[in-house]
Amino acid sequence: MRARDLFGVALRVLGVWFAYNACYAGLYLGMKEASLPLNSMVSATQDKLLVGFYGALAFVLLVFADRIVRLCYGPNRD
Question: φ, ψ for residue 76 (rounded to 5)?
Answer without folding.
Answer: -70, 130
